[in-house]
Amino acid sequence: MNLRNLLKREVIDTKTKKIACIGCDRKLEILSIDDKIIPLDGSRLSINMPGIICPDCVDEILTGLPDPPGLICVKELSEEMTKNLLVQGGFILDFNIAVHSLIDFFPTRADIYDVAAVKLHQEGYPEEAYDVLEKGIKSCDNPDLLRLEAATMTGIDGSPELGLEMLSEITNPDLQRFWVIKGNLLRKLGRWEEASKCWEHEMNKNPNDFFAWNNLGYYLLHIKKDFKKAQKHYENACDNFPDESRFHAYLGDSLFSQNHVNEALKNYYKALSIEGEDSEFAEQIKNMIDACNNKQIP
Hints:
three-stranded antiparallel β-sheet; Serine Threonine Protein Phosphatase 5, Tetratricopeptide repeat; 15 helices; four-stranded antiparallel β-sheet; about 60% helix; alpha+beta; disordered N terminus
C-alpha cells in the first residue's frame, strides 16, 4: 500500500507513525520502508480498503467472507498469491496505485510484472502498464518476457511497427509466444505472407499452440483462399485439438467452399456436439448447416 496515498486520506498519525484499525479505530504500529507500509503485531494489510485491520477485528470482518480479495497478511504473501490478487484487480480500489506496492514485494519476478501490466492495460491504465513493464525490464529476472508483453500491447494499441522494433531487442527468439506475436504484428501491417511463416514456425516448435494454428488457418481460408490447403490444415488441427469445436467448424467452411456439402455438414454437426462453445458461434454454425441444406450442387 502506498504511504503517500494513505497520508492524503489522513488515516495515519504522522507523529506517532501509527494507523487506525478500520474496524475499531485502535492505533496500530506501522513500519514504513521505501514508501510501503508494513503492518506489525500480526495486523492485516487491506488493499481494497485504505487501512489496516487489527487482529481483534479480523474474524468479525471476515465473517461470511472466507477469502475476500484484497485482505492479505503480509507475512504470508507469496508470488502465487500476488499474481492471483493482481488478476482480481477489479475488486481493488485505486488498483493502479496498489499494483506498485504488490510488485515491490517481488522486485525481480518478471511474471508478476507481466500479470500486473496486463491487468492495468485491461483496466484502462495503458500508460501505467507500460511504466510497470519498463520498470520490470530494468530489474527483473526475465526482461525478454516483458519486452514481448510490451510488443503485444503496442500492437493492440495500434502501433505494430513499434511492436516489431521491441521484438528486435529480444535476445531469445525461442521465447514462448514470440513467433505468434510477431506474426500478429505483421498481420496488422498487412504483411500476411510473412505472418504466416511466423505462425508455421511456432507450430513446428510448439504443436500445441492454439493461436498459431488458428491464425494460420484464417490466412489460408480467408486471405489466400487456398481451400484445399486450408482443408488439410484444419484436418490436422482437428487431430491435434479434437475437442476444439472451432476447428471442426472451420474444416466445414473449407469443405463447403469446395462444394463438399455432405462432408461439411458432418463437421458442422461435430462442432455443435462439442460443449462449451458460445451461443453466438453456435448460431453461426447453424446458419452454415442451413446453407448446406439449401445449396444446389451443380
